[in-house]
Amino acid sequence: MPKLFAAPWRWYLLALLVILLDIATKVWAVEQFMHGPALQIVPGFLQFTYAENYGAAFSFLADAGGWQRWFFGAVALIFSAVVIVWIRRLPQGRRWEPTALALILGGALGNLWDRILLGYVRDFISVYYGNWHFPVFNVADVAISVGAAMLVIELLFFKEQSETSSKNSAEV
């Protein structure tokens, strides 16, 4: 296997793929929906639209006056550095945990790109039902959520199994 696809590089490449997909979909959303109508995907439930999020998740601190851009940027940068080291230190045979971490890393850096470049994060996926609206989100948010869910699933259901396989591979 070429070194580029060996651990940990394969996981960093997955994170890069998430970043590129996130940026490409955000550019597409800006072109399609910034000045135009929303696109109904599943009427009454899912649409593509355009929104700018100046805060964190669910627009937390969106009206804080601007300092939050740099605060959330610094948090994302520090967190990303921790995840990069975490992935590097994982045993070679692991798949689930580094995949989850790569998704989280790619999502964090995708949103960080927006935050540093624009001062806000571009969102475009809207889930709603009647008068209820979930906060608008993007591909980076999906990657972070899926990665976090994968980590929780591993912690709850597979932690002992992964620790045992790590010990066995270390003994060989």
TrEMBL record:
Gene Ontology molecular functions: aspartic-type endopeptidase activity
EC code: 3.4.23.36
Listed Pfam families: Peptidase_A8
Top EC category: hydrolase
InterPro entries, per database record: Peptidase_A8
Catalytic activity, as annotated: Release of signal peptides from bacterial membrane prolipoproteins. Hydrolyzes -Xaa-Yaa-Zaa-|-(S,diacylglyceryl)Cys-, in which Xaa is hydrophobic (preferably Leu), and Yaa (Ala or Ser) and Zaa (Gly or Ala) have small, neutral side chains
Keyword tags: Aspartyl protease, Cell membrane, Hydrolase, Membrane, Protease, Transmembrane, Transmembrane helix
Membrane-spanning ranges: 70-87, 99-116, 136-158
Pathway(s) this gene product operates in, as recorded in its UniProt entry: Protein modification; lipoprotein biosynthesis (signal peptide cleavage)
Compartments reported by the entry: Cell membrane
Annotated catalytic residues: D123, D141
Record membrane topology: Multi-pass membrane protein
Family: Belongs to the peptidase A8 family.
Reported function: This protein specifically catalyzes the removal of signal peptides from prolipoproteins.
HAMAP family found in the cross-reference section: LspA (MF_00161)
The protein, known as: Lipoprotein signal peptidase
